């Protein structure tokens, strides 16, 4: 497994090979970025959007967090990292598309399903519990329909994508641009075990292979 020294070795390979191969690209990027996509993905080490979508530097404006969640629009005091990134992508970079990417075997969704950190102190799981409380309503629905088994985990992983999309639309800048045809939102789900990407049909609420 790669440790910090492994990262430095990787950097040296990149500088000697990859950077040189795309030197013109890096020169262009030094003056600014113009991504056409924002991807909101999980922090999970197995789910790297740049690898899954085979993209080059500068093509994706990305946010990664536990369970690829977007919080609802709030004006309370606090450090709203996802909200700030979304605001920057939509109002400053004016990205025309946003993808919410969920994935198989999501630890955050599993924690939401089991409520593993429900009474934990901050720094001992409490932050995770607070963050995953965004799925409380979806979790109760999933448990009522599927119980607590593997099928329930998959169902909640799908619901996490839908909840994040719904929360995206609570930000005033999002529906305004959608209505004008300037912004499209997509839901996707990556199955780690077989490498298949599933896309959400918002009309049916179903995911199907791309």
UniProtKB/TrEMBL annotation:
Free-text remark on how the cofactor is bound: Binds 1 zinc ion per subunit.
UniProt-recorded name of the protein: Carbonic anhydrase
Protein source organism: Rhizorhabdus wittichii (strain DSM 6014 / CCUG 31198 / JCM 15750 / NBRC 105917 / EY 4224 / RW1) (Sphingomonas wittichii)
Function recorded in the entry: Reversible hydration of carbon dioxide.
Domain of life: Bacteria
Substrates-to-products reaction catalysed: hydrogencarbonate + H(+) = CO2 + H2O
InterPro entries assigned to the protein according to its UniProt record, in alphabetical order: Beta_CA_cladeB, Carbonic_anhydrase, Carbonic_anhydrase_CS, Carbonic_anhydrase_sf
Cofactor: Zn(2+)
Ligand binding (Zn(2+)): 42, 44, 103, 106
Keywords recorded for this protein, A-Z: Lyase, Metal-binding, Zinc
